[in-house]
Amino acid sequence: MKTFSAIIFSIILFMLLSPGIAGAVNQNDINQELQQGGIIHLPAGTYTLTDSIILQSNTILEGEPGTVITIPDHAGWPAWKPLISGNSVQNVTIRNLEINANSNGNLETPHGAGYYNCIHVVDCDNLQVYNCTFHDSLGDGLRTKRCENIKFHNNLVYRLGHEGFFGIESQYIECFNNRITTRTNSGLRIWNSANVRFHDNVIDAQLDAGGGDPGIQIEDSKGSVGNVEIYNNVLNRTWGKGIWLVAYDSGVSNIQKVLIHHNLFYEIGQSYNIPSIGGIVNDGFQGTRIYNNVFDGVKNNAFRNQAGGQGTVIKDNVFTNTVQHTSISQTATGYAIADLAGANLSVTNNSFYNNENGDAYQTGISNAYFRDPETHQTFSGWTWTGSTWTCKFVKPTELGSIPLTTTIRLRLMAIIYSILYCKVFN
C-alpha cells in the first residue's frame, strides 16, 4: 500500500512540476470547447498560448490546482490583445486558474500600455472571476469596459503591470476577499463606473520604485461615478496613496458621495518618489463620507484634500502617528488632516494622537479626543490588541507581517502530502 501510494504521489508531483504536461492542448482546442458551452475544465498543467482564449456566453472556464495559463517569451502580440478575451458575452465564470503572463519574458514591451492583460472583457453582463491567481503581467488582472454585474473575489494578485481589477464605464461591480500586492499602478480601480462595492480586501505594495501608487483608485471624468462604497479593507504599507479620489473634466461638477468606512490604513505611503501620498487623497470629489476608519502611521497626511472636497464628512475615525513625507517637502506634510483646497470639511468625533506636525491644517475640528487610541476606547469601533487593530466587521490581520498567500500549486502539494503520508500511510 505504501509503495502504491508513493507511486501515485510521484506521478501527481511530476504532473504538477512538468511545464509541458498540457502541451497537447492549445487555445484552439479550448476555444472549440467554449463554443459548445457548459463547463470547460482544464486539468493541471501549463497551457502556453499563442493566441487569445475567446470566452462564450453561458460558460464556465475552470482549472484545478496546478492549472497555469501563460504566454511564451517574446510573444510579439499587439497591444490590447489579452490572454483571455470576451466581447458581448453573458453569464460567464472563470475560476481556479493561475494566470502567469510572463512579464519577464516580454520585457521589450512596456508596463501599463495595454499589453498582455490577463482577462479583458467588453460589453459583457454577469461575469464572475474567483479563486484565481494573477501574476507577472505587463497589464491588468481583470479589465472590464461597459460591463455590468461583475464579481471579482477570492483572488491572489501580484507583480502585475497595471491594475489588479480595472472597471471602466461599468456598473454593479463587487470586488471582495482579494489579496493584492500592487506593482506599476493600483490594486482596485474604477473609471466612470457606478454601483460599486470594494470590501474585505487586503492590499499592500511591492516596496520598490515599481510598487505602483494607490491601493484603490476611484476616477470620474464624465460625472458618472456614484453609489460607491469602500469598506472593511486592510490597506497595509502601500507604495503611494491608500485611496485616491480623482475627478476632472465633467467629473468635477458631480457630487459622487463615496462612502469609505471601517477600513484600516496602516503605514500608507512608503514611496520616496510620489509627492501626494496619504491615506486618502482627494483631487476633486465631493460629498465623501469617511467614518469608522483607522489611520495609523500614514506618511504625509491621513486625509489630504487637494481639490474639491465640498460636503466631505470625516467622523468617528482614529488618526494616529501621522508622519511627514519621507523625502519630498510640501505644504502641510505631517498633519493628520490637510484641507489645501479650503473646502470647509466637517470633522467631528475623531480621535487624534501623536501626529507629527499637528492634527488639522486649514480646517476646524469639533468634539475631538486626544488620548492614546491604543489604550483608550474611541468611537471608531476599533481596538488595539498590542500588535494589530481589530474591528468586528474586519477580518483580523497581523500587521507586522502580512505574508503573500502561497500559490495554488504549493497548496495542492501540501494537501497531497497530508493525504498520502498522514491518512494513507497510517
TrEMBL record:
Which keywords, in A-to-Z order, does the entry hold? Repeat
Q: Which Pfam families match?
A: Disaggr_assoc, Pect-lyase_RHGA_epim
Domain (Disaggregatase-related) spans 227-364
- The superkingdom listed in its UniProt entry is Archaea
Q: Which residues cross the membrane?
A: none
Report the leader peptide range.
Answer: none
Quote the protein name from its UniProt record: Right handed beta helix domain-containing protein
Q: Which stretches make up the Rhamnogalacturonase A/B/Epimerase-like pectate lyase domain?
A: 31-203
